[in-house]
Write a structure and sequence with these properties.
Blueprint: H1 16-24, E1 29-33, H2 39-44, E2 52-57, H3 62-75, E3 93-99, E4 104-110, H4 114-120
Antiparallel strand pairs: 1-2, 2-4, 3-4
Length: 124
């Protein structure tokens, strides 16, 4: 489990509980955003306009990490969709990617913010 040395107040306000849930369940998060708090960055294209949390994985653990993340999100009562994320939708997705040049793997949770999480689960 990653050390919980994050200052949650430094995170975007509407993604803090999602990040906390993932970290409490052993996921090594390394980037997140609520998709609205950094309007200037989003307008410049340097921040994502959707709620997101990126999780580190090894190439060997990427598939199991994605499955574990999917199971966690479902366990708290959130419906996870398949397919591609569209800005106008309210779908929640779990995706993973591997970059062979850098030999790095990442698992991404898209579309889940604190409001959606709290509507489906107990407060953290």
């Amino acid at each position: 489990m990653p050390p919980d040395d994050i200052d949650y107040q430094q995170l975007d306000p509407a993604i803090r509980n999602v990040v906390r849930l993932l970290r409490l369940n052993g996921f090594d998060t390394h980037d997140s955003g609520d998709g609205v708090s950094k309007a200037d960055w989003i307008a410049r294209g340097t921040a994502m306009a959707i709620p997101h949390v990126f999780v580190r994985a090894t190439p060997e653990s990427m598939v199991s990490c994605a499955r574990d993340l999917l199971l966690l999100v479902r366990r708290v009562g959130v419906t996870v969709s398949s397919g591609y994320f569209r800005q106008e939708s309210d779908r929640v997705l779990v995706e993973s990617t591997y970059c062979p040049v850098a030999d790095e793997a990442t698992v991404v949770l898209l579309g889940l913010n604190d409001a959606t999480l709290s509507a489906h689960s107990e407060p953290l």
